[in-house]
Write a sequence for this structure.
């Protein structure tokens, strides 16, 4: 799977952006205009729940947001590091390709939806459908995740340090989900699986990458039973 | 008995049930035998009110025609100027509808790009992402943003000329998709991040937004990611077009695509195709009414698809208020689908030329709806592209012939006043008078 850590050269200058006087459009345009390989640092204040903050980034820049963001913060991120010192609305880091997004508060539903790569860390809880249709991203949630998390999850790893809601991993494909706490219920075709040494190792790595000290041995692995991969009429009640 | 005709049976006193006719009996027997419903490609096959139920009036004493072949009748269309820095300017209002790499071979996608580009129109990706063949051969490429997000990639979003947020399609409004395992080769699987040979389900709802208020925020995000450069289309399957179009416009769409139930699919349950959604003819006036009431008709463009076959259909769509059409099934036929020369091969797989609709099965003798390497090689994308370009030119010229006869110097000048309806159903759906009368059902005498 993807690299968990990246070397980020320390930027020398930080650009302050106040979203009460600068529009999100201007912020994103400035971030998109950074030259290839830029490691510039931006500090964004007064986000006030605005949507689409720091989306479509394609440079190894660092964006630190002081406050809460609305929908789709850091959407489709590539290479960048985005830190949200607050809560994040729907679809944080949706379709992320690479880089790192760290929400220090809670995340709303569909966190990391369809994301292909990179690392999403949520220190608090993530609501429903966390990691829905994930396609290779790594997600570490410090708290709980809501119902239907990991729905149709195709690839990648999701580590839940708290509990998981109903229908975890419903219709899951090849993603791996690790839960430390309880699981309210498993979705269709999702089963608990043996924690082999390689799984223990990857949980250890993911927790370390997220800056957490939970005991990897306390986690249970969940994945696909692969019984629904090809339609069969005898499984009709499971669809 | 095998050569007996229905008349022979009637002579023997045998009577076929109108309710349980032979097709119905065969369907029940198939269900009982297999335990599975029929999945197929294409759109609704049942007879529906359609463009054939409309006629143009042509010029007469009270109207002044344009000289065919001499006086100009322009065909270009600009799509997406409402918000985008770079709207699409197409030479003909016939666009190529979204069809996925996976459902179609890479060579077929290339041919669609070649043909469309030759006549200055756009082609569209599909579920499964953007291929190099398609981008490389398409002057104007619309990138679909679908619930599955298979192959969704911001680099491709930036490389596209427009973005189409897909809520549904006419063959299955409210339904997701399924690409059967036999078409999931290593390349298709890789693009979709799934194992080879697995049935690939496409969700029916987007994973990170629900409803029109969320859609407005989603469109905002897509615009931010692409620096407000690209037109954003919203595509809906025709079921409640009046409300859907209004909500799409409110959510910020630059272009609305309405796909009627004759619109094709690569793989959907027959019961879904035939029983969900409304005909294209019924959808257009409702979509136009919504745009007019919002004061954005022609500012937000309307693209209509679902059963558009020729220049007359194109002209009728334009006259009803569309800005452009999209074709899928007709484009595949132009490429070589259902070619009579392949009849013997269609029969080997239980079909016949003119009937083949198992686009989901991956056995297409024409090499179009398949991922089989040998079958794909039968299809020459350069030849296919030329055939498509020929067909698009014919459609456009046919529409020009009609427009000139109606005295119109641009296809967009066609208007409802140029049309009448042949049937009461069509008159009621389109609010056009029944031919030879001034009667519009529901509007008094």
């Amino acid at each position: 799977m993807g690299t968990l850590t990246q070397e980020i050269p320390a930027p020398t200058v930080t650009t302050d952006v106040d979203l009460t006087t600068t529009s999100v459009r201007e912020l994103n345009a400035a971030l998109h205009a950074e030259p290839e390989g830029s490691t510039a640092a931006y500090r964004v204040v007064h986000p006030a729940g605005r949507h689409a903050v720091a989306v479509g980034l394609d440079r190894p820049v660092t964006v630190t947001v002081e406050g809460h963001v609305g929908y789709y913060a850091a959407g489709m991120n590539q290479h960048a590091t985005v830190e949200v010192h607050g809560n994040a609305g729907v679809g944080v880091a949706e379709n992320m390709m690479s880089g790192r997004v760290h929400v220090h508060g809670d995340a709303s539903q569909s966190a990391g939806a369809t994301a292909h790569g990179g690392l999403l860390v949520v220190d608090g809880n993530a609501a429903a459908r966390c990691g829905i249709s994930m396609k290779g991203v790594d997600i570490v949630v410090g708290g709980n995740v809501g119902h239907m998390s990991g729905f149709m999850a195709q690839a990648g790893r999701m580590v839940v340090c708290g509990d998981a809601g109903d229908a975890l991993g419903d219709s899951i494909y090849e993603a791996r989900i690790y839960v430390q706490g309880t699981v309210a219920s498993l979705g269709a075709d999702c089963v608990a699986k043996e924690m082999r040494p390689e799984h223990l190792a990857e949980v250890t790595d993911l927790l370390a990458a997220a800056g957490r000290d939970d005991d990897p041995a306390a986690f249970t692995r969940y994945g696909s039973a692969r019984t629904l991969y090809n339609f069969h009429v005898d499984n009709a009640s499971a669809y | 008995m095998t050569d007996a005709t229905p008349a022979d049976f009637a002579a023997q006193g045998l009577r076929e049930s109108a309710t349980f006719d032979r097709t119905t009996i065969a369907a029940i027997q198939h269900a009982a035998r297999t335990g599975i419903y029929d999945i197929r490609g294409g759109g609704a096959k049942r007879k529906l009110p359609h463009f054939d139920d409309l006629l143009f009036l042509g010029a007469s004493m009270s109207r002044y025609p344009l000289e065919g072949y001499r006086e100009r009748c322009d065909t270009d269309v600009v799509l997406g100027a409402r918000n985008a820095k770079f709207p699409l300017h197409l030479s003909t209002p016939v666009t190529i509808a979204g069809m996925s790499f996976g459902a179609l071979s890479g060579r077929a996608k290339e041919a669609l790009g070649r043909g469309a580009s030759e006549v200055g129109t756009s082609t569209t990706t599909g579920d499964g992402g953007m291929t190099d063949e398609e981008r490389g051969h398409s002057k104007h490429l619309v990138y679909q943003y679908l619930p599955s997000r298979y192959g969704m990639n911001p680099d491709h979003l930036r490389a596209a000329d427009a973005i189409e947020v897909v809520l549904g399609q006419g063959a299955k409004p409210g339904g997701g998709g399924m690409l059967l395992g036999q078409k999931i080769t290593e390349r298709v699987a890789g693009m979709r991040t799934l194992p080879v040979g697995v049935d690939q389900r496409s969700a029916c709802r987007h994973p990170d937004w629900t409803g029109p208020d969320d859609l407005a925020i989603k469109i905002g995000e897509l615009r931010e990611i692409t620096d407000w450069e690209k037109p954003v289309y919203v595509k809906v399957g025709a079921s409640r077009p009046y409300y859907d179009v209004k909500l799409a416009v409110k959510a910020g769409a630059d272009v609305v695509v309405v796909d009627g139930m004759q619109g094709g699919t690569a793989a959907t349950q027959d019961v879904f195709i035939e029983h969900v959604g409304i005909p294209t003819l019924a959808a257009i006036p409702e979509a136009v009414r919504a745009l007019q009431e919002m004061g954005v008709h022609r500012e937000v463009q309307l693209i209509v698809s679902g059963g558009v076959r020729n220049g007359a259909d194109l002209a009728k769509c334009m006259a009803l208020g569309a800005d452009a059409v999209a074709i899928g099934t007709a484009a595949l036929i132009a490429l070589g689908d259902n070619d009579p020369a392949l009849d013997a091969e269609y029969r080997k797989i239980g079909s016949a030329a003119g009937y083949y609709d198992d686009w989901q099965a991956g056995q297409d003798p024409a090499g179009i709806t398949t991922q089989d390497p040998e079958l794909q090689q039968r299809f020459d994308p350069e030849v296919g592209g030329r055939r498509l370009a020929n067909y698009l030119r014919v459609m456009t010229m046919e529409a020009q012939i009609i427009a000139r006869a109606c005295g119109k110097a641009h296809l967009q000048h066609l208007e409802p006043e140029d049309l009448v309806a042949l049937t009461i159903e069509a008159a009621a759906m389109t609010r056009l008078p029944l031919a030879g009368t001034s009667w519009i059902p529901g509007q008094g005498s």
Summary: The interface with chain A takes residues 34-36, 148-149, 152-155, 157-158, 178, 181, 192-195, 197-199, 201, 203, 207-209, 214, 217-218, 220-221, 224-228 of chain B (CB under 8 Å).
